[in-house]
Amino acid sequence: MVLISGERYLAMRHSFAHFALLTETRLLVASVLAWLLSIILYINFAANRSVFMPINNTFYGLCLAFILFCHVTVYREIRRHEKQIAAQQVTVEARKQFEKDKKAFKVTFIIIIVLMLCYVPILIFSAVLERFRSKISLEVLYICFFLTTLMAFLNSFFNPIIYSFRLREFRVAFIELICKTANIAEAEQREMKIFGTPNAVVRIEAGQETEGEARQNVEQ
């Protein structure tokens, strides 16, 4: 989620750097480094459990702070772009790109809110356990551990559902996967029958055509 938030930050705040810096190779390297960092943290857990929790909580806190910073910045950029669009100060291509970026931001924002709701309880429980372990009964300890761990695991269950409801491409791919005999065109038709979701870009172009016709009528 840190990598996704950083990518959205570059896309909205530094669009030219976004295309120049984010190559496929660099994204793969960043993903591998993220996995290696997680493995290193849990190697530390196996070596010294007393040091693991403070380091792990600090790491998660920094990640959450970075995610919040990126999304607050992206939200401000979206508001600024919306004002420019309302004032007709952007091109048609810029409007299309803005709609795509705005849609991606909304999906990422929902994913991050669900992520925090799922993981914050286990982080709070870990911090409380580290400080008040001797005062917590074994029954309460097991119940809290089970519930907080279950919520963390549920995050992986919620993500595909969110993507399915928010992204048409994900729904089409899912239908194509379930109906193995259907090709992409048939999967798109079935998705339209089930959800009936119009494309945002088509709505923008239709609105622009309507505005153009209205202006022609006024001139005539």
UniProtKB/TrEMBL annotation:
Cell compartment(s), UniProt: Cell membrane
Keyword rRNA-binding appears in the UniProt entry: no
Keyword field contains DNA repair: no
CDD domains in the record: 7tm_classA_rhodopsin-like
Database matches in PROSITE patterns: G_PROTEIN_RECEP_F1_2
Residue ranges crossing the lipid bilayer per the database entry: 27-47, 59-75, 104-128, 140-158
Coarse class of the protein's main subcellular location: membrane
Coiled-coil region list: none
UniProt topology in membrane: Multi-pass membrane protein
Classification via Pfam families: 7tm_1 (PF00001)
InterPro entries: GPCR_Rhodpsn, GPCR_Rhodpsn_7TM
All residue ranges annotated as the G-protein coupled receptors family 1 profile domain in the record: 1-163
Keyword entries, A-Z: Cell membrane, Membrane, Transmembrane, Transmembrane helix
Protein's name in the database: G-protein coupled receptors family 1 profile domain-containing protein
Organism: Porites lobata
Taxonomic classification: Eukaryota, Metazoa, Cnidaria, Anthozoa, Hexacorallia
